[in-house]
Amino acid sequence: MGKVLRQTHCILEVHDARIPFSGRNINLIKRLVSNKPIILLLNKSDLISADLRPLIRSQLMNKMHEIGVHLEDILFMDSIAANAKQAGYSHQFLTTILQSVERMMIDEANFMNEEKGHNLLVMGIPNVGKSTIINRMRNVYLNKAGKATIVGSKAGVTKAVLERIKICDHPHKLYLFDTPGILQPSFENDPNQEQFMRCALCGTISDEVIGKELIADYLLYWLNKHQLFDYVEFLGLTSPTNDINEALTHAAIKFNQFRPFLNLETGVQEQKPNYKPLAEKFIGEFRKGNFGRLSLDIDELK
Ligand SMILES: Nc1nc2c(ncn2[C@@H]2O[C@H](COP(=O)(O)OP(=O)(O)OP(=O)(O)O)[C@@H](O)[C@H]2O)c(=O)[nH]1
Ligand SMILES: [Mg+2]
């Protein structure tokens, strides 16, 4: 990373737009990048309400300013939208990057070498869409189809710092380094571990680490707290509940998902709700955005 950082002219920090305040490892970023320009990309913004964007933007800018980190810009990306402009991959995005790099050039006169091109480094916690962004930039700005770097729905898909991936030729050559989710999510002032659970809900921490049932329990708590009751029908309930076991038991009936177990007292084979895949189904429904465009950090927005 150190070697890559020395050759980097601009950092693209990627984070999940559903959790703009949770899990960003800003102190580590601050230490690693020193004076390099940072552009924050809030990805997966298709999953939050567009109305919240200006508020999130201004609050984050202020927060970063307070801790002495200058952000060049904050951009909302929907990297899987079919239309490139709608996805956030406009000419303006490229211009923002080039302007940031140029400012760096003025600061460090001989730092740039036009022949070798400019290097960008994509950083962020796992599963926020770093590889997707690189592939999309290459696709839009270099007009290359296919994937140069691997994408996956689970945390930890990218395993090593890869080769430079070219993403643009004109007006300058731009290269990107993909990184694995090397930044661990960071939690400060998180006494109830809510930020931690929100990160888990967004898949930035492997589900296996926390356990799917526990993540489902937090999702149920969060939906109830915000009076969002679409889950009632989805889980086959008749009314809201705070009890995840009750919720998943109803879901077991609806989806006919039971597993056999031997009752040692009676010696009879019985059926039990198969909680794990049911919890996964419930979490999956949230992750697809089917309970609405939900901003998990909404209570922290003033
Ligand atoms: N809804 C939505 N999903 C996205 C978006 N961008 C990426 N994804 C999905 O998020 C998942 C993770 O994407 P990756 O690009 O592999 O994420 P990463 O940050 O490179 O992950 P690691 O390499 O594991 O750290 C994949 O299932 C993507 O399809 C987006 O803008 N919106
Ligand atoms: Mg990746």
Sum this structure up briefly:
This protein is α/β, with parallel strands linked by helices.
Q: If you had to describe this structure to a student in words, what would you say it looks like?
A:
With 302 residues, the protein is of the alpha/beta class. It has two domains: 2-177, P-loop containing nucleotide triphosphate hydrolases (Rossmann fold); 211-300, no CATH class. Helix content is 38%, strand content 15%. The protein has helices spanning 2-6, 26-33, 53-66, 84-87, 91-107, 130-141, 194-201, 207-210, 212-225, 230-234, 244-255, 275-287, and strands spanning 10-16, 38-43, 71-76, 118-123, 164-168, 174-177, 258-263, 268-273. A six-stranded mixed sheet has the order 3-2-1-4-6-5, with helices on both faces. Strands 7-8 form a two-stranded antiparallel ribbon. Strand 1, helix 2 and strand 2 form a beta-alpha-beta unit. Helix 7 packs across helix 9 (212-225). The longest helix is centred in the first third of the chain and has 17 residues, at 91-107. The chain is elongated and about 80 Å long. The relative contact order is 0.14. The model has no long low-confidence stretch (mean pLDDT 89). Bound molecules: guanosine-5'-triphosphate (GTP) and magnesium ion (MG). Guanosine-5'-triphosphate (GTP) binds next to helix 6. Residues 130-131, 157-158 line the site of magnesium ion.
